[in-house]
Amino acid sequence: EAEMCDRVGIVDHGKLIAIGPPGDLIRDHIGPEGNLEDVFIKLTGRDLRDDVATVRDRMVSCAQRGGEHTR
Predict the structure, then answer these.
(1) Is 61:53 a contact under the CB 8 Å cutoff?
(2) pTM of the entire structure?
(3) For residues 23 and 29, what is the distance between their CA atoms, to the nearest angstrom?
(4) Can you list the alpha helix ranges (DSSP code H) found in 1-71?
């Protein structure tokens, strides 16, 4: 959905770290084969902080990737 926006911002720990048209952010930070999630991960190091994500964060992330959350 964000790819359809005129501009998007990437926020990390309350600080705006990148803003611009989605295509420009992807091109500048990842390359033509990337997407906004790749940009977010590259700029924030999110994969390094996954171990401190809340249970809700992990459930939302799993659902966004089309997965199923079970107990």
Answers:
(1) yes
(2) 0.62
(3) 10
(4) 22-29, 36-44, 46-49, 55-64
- Secondary structure (3-state) at 52: helix
* Cα distances (Å, whole numbers) of residue 40 to 23, 30, 31, 70, 71: 13, 10, 13, 26, 28
What is the CB neighbour count within 10 angstroms for residue 13?
7
Per-residue pLDDT tens for 22-62?
999 999 999 988 988 899 889 988 764 555 566 666 667 66
Instruction: Answer yes or no: are the C-beta atoms of 30 and 3 closer than 8 Å.
Output: no
Handedness of CA 42, 30, 23, 20 (dihedral sign): positive
